[in-house]
Design brief:
Number of helices: 11
Radius of gyration: 21 Å
CATH topology of the largest domain: Aspartate Aminotransferase, domain 2
Distance between the termini: 36 Å
Order of helices and strands: HEHHEHEHEHEHEEEHHEEHEEEH
Number of strands: 13
CATH class of the largest domain: Alpha Beta
Shape: globular
Strand order of the largest sheet: 2-8-7-6-5-3-4
Length: 377
């Protein structure tokens, strides 16, 4: 997919290191830095710079719409995934008779808005078993009062990939709940089929190789009336500068309502360039390139007796493999000293494999990991 030459040109900082931590921070291709320089030149135009700024935002909305399987009018851009989920809670204004289902493999962004005192709904937790969310457990939680089922398509915690089609079928057999899907750990890494989702949210600084400061939001028009956030601001309003602006507020419906204020144009330039790069290669090609690397890594971890918290089945995994160890901190430090970068937190070690990784990366990781386990096992 990438030759040695194109990898050096596009990702020069990867020379001399083994980087397997994209699930936390992606390494942007050189074109992203060029785009940020372009933003700077456009910003120096003053007010005239808003013309190219708007053009880049429109271009990004089109690219995101293609990835989400939506129309560009069904896309909004805010500052981060956490903001998008918070604005979702504002939009729904749930009552104490409502229920929300979250799960224990999810990132805090998609779970904590519903746990705040300002959310009156009852929160139910869909708990995983052996690193997998079983649909029979979800079915037991669903009722006619369920208003939201919030999930990640791929878990940041262990790489478990959810079957969205089955999730939608099970959910809609027992409720009219909205299905909110965080694709932060999937977009740019695995092909997406989001036709069953009612809300799609992604951060921009991980697998799609963009910058911080972006939150991508997709709301199909069929549910725009249910997912219109009634927040203050101006960019999302129909009448922000009309004569009646202090008499009534008219909010654009659906995803555009999540873009409440001045867009973060530096992030927009960066993410637009990053998605252009991803699209040039193709997500399917990235996924196909990574599949054998995932298999080598998973088999190597099993052969070492690693205590996996990821599913054993590769078909249930996407991008991430995680395991736990009582001396995780020491193992992490050993790897880091040898310029091998993974994630460590609270005894959990997480490996993330992307399109810029190579068989040599995986073999080097497994070799040093074997040494570390002997030293600290």
């Amino acid at each position: 997919m990438l030759t040695d030459h194109t990898r050096r040109v596009d990702f020069p900082t990867l020379e001399g290191q083994t980087y397997l931590n994209t699930a936390a921070e992606g390494i942007p291709p050189s074109g992203v830095l060029t785009a940020l320089e372009e933003y700077s030149r456009d910003k120096l135009l003053g007010m005239d710079g808003r013309i190219p700024h708007a053009a880049r935002r429109d271009a990004l909305c089109k690219k995101v719409a293609t990835h989400f399987g939506l129309d560009e009018t069904e896309i909004g851009i805010c500052s981060c995934a956490s903001e998008a989920f918070q604005l979702t809670a504002v939009a729904l204004q749930l009552a104490d008779t409502d229920e929300v289902i979250i799960n224990d493999l999810d990132f805090p962004a998609g779970a904590t808005p519903w746990l705040q005192p300002g959310c009156k709904a009852q929160v139910k937790i869909w708990r995983s078993r052996n690193g997998i969310l079983e649909f029979e457990d979800l079915e037991a939680l669903l009722t006619s009062r369920t208003r939201v089922v919030s999930v990640s398509l791929v878990s940041f915690f262990n790489g478990f990939k959810l079957d969205l089609h089955t999730l939608a079928r099970v959910t809609r057999e027992k409720s009219e709940a909205l299905i909110a899907v965080d694709v932060t750990q999937a977009m740019g890494r695995v092909p997406l089929d989001l036709r069953e989702a009612d809300l799609v949210i992604s951060a921009t600084h991980k697998w799609i190789l963009g910058s911080h400061g972006g939150g991508l939001v997709g709301v199909p028009s069929r549910v725009a009336h249910r997912l219109t956030t009634r927040a203050g601001g101006w960019f999302h309003l129909e009448n922000a500068f009309e004569e009646n602006r202090f008499d009534q507020v008219s909010t654009r419906p659906g995803a555009p309502s999540f873009s409440t204020g001045m867009p973060n144009y530096p992030a927009i330039y960066a993410v637009d360039a990053a998605l252009s790069y991803i699209d040039q290669i193709g997500v399917s090609a990235i996924d196909a390139h990574c599949a054998p690397l995932m298999e080598i890594c998973l088999d190597g971890l099993k052969s070492m007796g690693a205590d996996l918290i990821s599913p054993n089945d590769l078909s249930a995994l996407a991008g991430i493999i995680a395991f736990v160890h009582p001396n995780a901190k020491d193992i992490y430090e050993h790897l880091h000293q040898n310029n091998i970068h993974i994630m460590s937190h609270a005894g959990r070690l997480r490996i993330a494999i992307h399109g810029y990784n190579t068989p040599a990366d995986i073999n080097r990781l497994l070799g040093e990991l074997h040494t570390a386990l002997k030293l600290h096992g």
